[in-house]
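Escalated from tier 1: fe (ii) ion holo job.
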Amino acid sequence: MRIPSDVEIRALHMKYAPTRAAFDLVFTHCEIVREIADQLLARASGLDADLVRAGCLLHDIGVYRLYGPDGRFDGADYIRHGVLGHEILAAEGFTEELCRFCSCHTGMGITRADVERQGLPLPLADYVAQTDEEELVMYADKFHSKTTPPTFVSGPTFLTHVRRFGEDKVTEFARLTEKFGTPDLTPVVTAHGHTLT
Ligand SMILES: [Fe+2]
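Tier 2 regenerated the structure:
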C-alpha cells in the first residue's frame, strides 16, 4: 500500500473543502490529532507511524460533505462524516486500509447494535477500529473538537460526553487510555491557543 504524503493529503483537503474557513477548521484539527498521536506513538511500539500520520490527516475529510451550497455547515447528519470520508477516499483510489480511518474513528466506535438502537442514518454495519493504528487515530481524535471556537478536550470531559452513549463506550475509552496513555495536552494547547475544556 502506498501511503500518501502530507503534501498530497493537504491537496486533497483543498480539493474537497468548500471554503477556506472549512479547510482551516478541518485540516488544522487533523494536524492537531496527528500531533497528539505523535506524542502517544513515542510511548507505543510496533505501530506503523507513517500509517498513523496519514490516518490522522485523512480521518475527517468527509466533514466537507456536510457543508451546504451556501458554504454553511449542516451538523444534522454529522454522524455520517465517517462513511462520507470513506466514500471520498475510495473514489480517489485509496486502499480500504486508509478508507477505514474515516469510517471507523467516530466516538468510541459505532456498532451495528448502536446503528439499530439509535436509528442512526448509516448503513447497518460495524464501524469499529480494529488495528492498533485505527485505534490510535480514533483515541487521539477525542482530545480535540471542531467546536466554534475549537477546543481541546480532557479525558474526563470526553467521558462526560460519551457516557450517554453507553457504559461500553466508557470502558472502551478506559481500555485505550490504558493501552496508549494519556497525552500531555499542554504543548498542543500552547502551540494552537485553543481552550482546554
Ligand atoms: Fe476528528
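DSSP finds ten helices and three strands in the chain.
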